[in-house]
Amino acid sequence: MQRLVSTLAAATAVAGLLASGSALAQEPIKIAHVYGKTGPYEAYAEQSHNGLMMGLEYATDGTMEIDGRPIEVIEKDTQLKPDLGKTLLAEAYGDDEVTLAVGAVSSGVALAMLPVAQEYEKILLVEPAVADSITGEAWNRYIFRTGRNSSQDAIANAVALGQDGNCIATLAQDYAFGRDGVAAFKEALADTDARLIFEEYAPQDATDFTAHAQRLFDELNAAENCERKIIWVVWAGGGNPVGKIKALAPERFDIELASGGNILAAMAAYKELPGMEGATYYYYEIPENEMNDWLVEEHFARHNEPPDFFTAGGMSAGVAIVEALRRAESTETEDLIATMEGMEFMTPKGTMRFREEDHQALQAMYHFKIRVEEDVEWGIPELVRTLEIEDMDIPIRNDR
Fold first, then answer.
1. Domains and CATH numbers, the chain
2. Vertex 125, ends 59 and 295: CA angle to 5°?
3. Where in the sequence is the signal peptide annotated (predicted)?
4. Which of 35, 55, 195, 256 is the most buried (most CB within 10 A)?
């Protein structure tokens, strides 16, 4: 009888351990998406979130599980307010106990969130905020970024516009995204035969560009020894400065407009600029790989439209998360950092690689020329040249 009782007790204990292990195996992996769902970047946010969810789906073969553990995505709306972004990220790390977080849409909000990741010693995967300072002077070791940075934008656009005899003036928003973008462009252009003549900054919410355009016209008109005079616009959100400056007829002064890639709605203004050159992060018809084929086909099927600029970025973040968790075989931050530093992974754009020194994802960019087709609502960025990772010397801007 005593042996029977002992045997039953042991069996009960084993059953308890198995049940406990089973429950642990099913414990969800929590990921927070902390981004500006409302406000002027709402379109960017929607694309980013749709892409993130599609990336998680693709990388898990539709199961939304990693080693039997379901992925749970918790959404938090920063409303594009830096202080709220900090609060919500702390809430995600502390109260929700997420493994890692993704965000933000705005560079200003992302910069406010960086110290929170360091305080809680948990990863923040930045997507799609662009400012160089995120992986530069404001960076810490818990920050990774799948989105491109200002230097990648700038170097690619400098390649497109850096010919001898080109005189360029810039128009950008007066905040981190715009100023970092112009600073990086200025640095990249210095290695070409073109000249930067003037920098103009407008409020982030500007809608009237008449005075800004006049200053740009005046400065370029005063420049000497220019074969081409170009206004390069770097802008995020509403306002449509390209279209509004075009309406002021810069061609009267032999001045051209140029800009980088953007979301499809913004590129409607490019229909008035056939032949315009620039560089872009993504356009759905350019990359040729299996993942992008899936993204395009599925996005058309689900949304009756092509994937956009930030859809591809969100998908890249989702795939990177799954790859890191699988390869690390752990949700512990230090294991993930060790795995992600130097990690290469596929995206709709092709291969990305997290650089060890600053955790910036190195990636291809695309030099384009705008082609116009009557039945397409936007100017089509037709590929001129793919700038591969090896073609761009992206500066390391932190002091690691």
1. 29-148+287-363 (3.40.50.2300), 151-280+366-391 (3.40.50.2300)
2. 35
3. 1-25
4. 35
What is the pLDDT at residue 257? Answer: 96
Name the pTM for this structure: 0.89
Residue 26: predicted pLDDT: 86
Length of the chain: 400
Residue 74 burial class via C-beta count within 10 angstroms: exposed 0-12, middle 13-18, buried 19 and up: middle
The closest of 196, 112, 123, 184 to 148, measured between CA atoms, is: 184
pLDDT along the chain (400 residues), means of 10: 48 48 72 95 96 98 98 98 98 98 96 98 97 96 97 93 97 92 94 96 95 98 97 87 94 96 93 94 98 98 97 98 98 98 98 98 97 97 96 88
Strands 195-202 and 166-173: parallel
